[in-house]
Amino acid sequence: MDRALTAILGLVVAAVTVLLGLAVVLTVMVDDVDDIDAARVPIETGFASVEHDPDAARDLLDAWTRWRTGTFVATGTWTRTLDERPDDPLVGDVFVAQDPPQRLVVRLGSVVTAIDDAERFERVLVAELSLIGGYVLGPERLYDVSSGDSAGCYRAELVVPALASPWGRWAEYCFDGESGALLSATVRRQSALDVEQTRAIRAEVSPDDFS
Fold it and tell me: pTM for this one?
């Protein structure tokens, strides 16, 4: 065989060998990336799939309205459990005093909400209820909604995956039938589970509750 042709064939074989080697390396790298991505996926907390019920969505909005306009004092706990640290949750007390237009919310020792003006109370209420309506009603809603297993409970599941969503990927809210106060809230976020649980509710509200 001609030396020049032999040399050319040798170069071709060498090039193919290098390319095959690169392919193997790239395959290994891709597999490694997949393994890394898999390791970053949050631990899944199971939740029931929600089939949208427009009546339940309207009931949820009504329950939310009653919660925001009721008169009561509620105490409980708020817990956030990170998927990567399931044995080390953040836990703190929650205190809510409401006698419209007064509303005070203290969580983990910090004031979250303090309203004592009728005009501001109305403005905040209208804005919040408008947001909630957008979350659960109509074809452009963010969440599908259904009734929960217990009376006064509602489940919401995110319709379209989003990096930031107000109620996480899935949520359940339960309300007290007598006072309208929130009994519990469970929110499954991207990498954490938030749970608010009410321990006690009383209907008598005094000025001292807002001090």
Answer: 0.77
